[in-house]
Amino acid sequence: MNTQHWISHFEANTRLNHELQLPDTACxxxxxxxxxxxxxxxxxxxxxSGGGTRLRRYTRSIASxxxxxxxxxxxxxxxxxxxxxxxxxARTVKHLRGTLLQKQxxxxxxxxxxxxxNLEFNIQVLLTAELIAEVYFGQLSLRCSDPVVxxxxxxxxxxxxxxxxxxxxxxxxxxxxLTPAMQRLWRWQFQAIHFATACVVSWDxxxxxxxxxxxPANFRSRAxxxxxxxQSRLERRLHEHESHIRHDEGSTPGYSRSSNATMxxxxx
Length: 268
Ligand SMILES: [Fe+2]
Ligand SMILES: [Fe+2]
Known about the structure:
The protein has 268 residues and is mainly alpha-helical. The protein has 11 helices and no strands. Helix 1 (3-19) runs parallel beside helix 4 and helix 6 packs across helix 8 (180-204).
């Protein structure tokens, strides 16, 4: 994994979030739109505000792997970028005259789930939230007329797309060590968890979505397309890598699959 690329990316990009100027205008959205947006964005703000304690603890366990050298530093910077998102969203909630949240049930479930299995599952739950965030911020940036909400949503959408690539790079390294059958099993559970999350989020944020003229069903179908796009890119990369190995096996005398497999770390 090219962790140096991600370290440079996060260092430069997070600085932009700290310096981001928001339009100096008062919110003049209709009351029902303002209040549902404020509540909805406050939930996403809470989700972005974690300190990454569990994720950092997990990454320490793989810090010594040669092909993931630098990953721990990249994750520290990734967590810092998520915290810059929390700060931007807090400014947006304030602009919408909303209230920041300390606790919310979907966020509590999300945090509980992340600690359930192992590092890959933690990343997968995070990734699920980021795939949902891609749709959410995409719709906010397109459909909300408030300039502050638009500015923040556009920036967060760009950042989350970067995060999706970051998580894909990591998952490629880890899934690559699984058999095709285990990869299919992983895909199935990932899709199931993503679908359940999209259902819960589209229901919990239904007032906000409706105020933007997005039905919960429309939100779910967009979420499904984002998941398919992510998954197909990941699978294409895994297949390309597999074909490469097959080609090497065919052209290198004495090469054996098992000798290459020892270079891969097992998914822990
Ligand atoms: Fe974020
Ligand atoms: Fe993210």
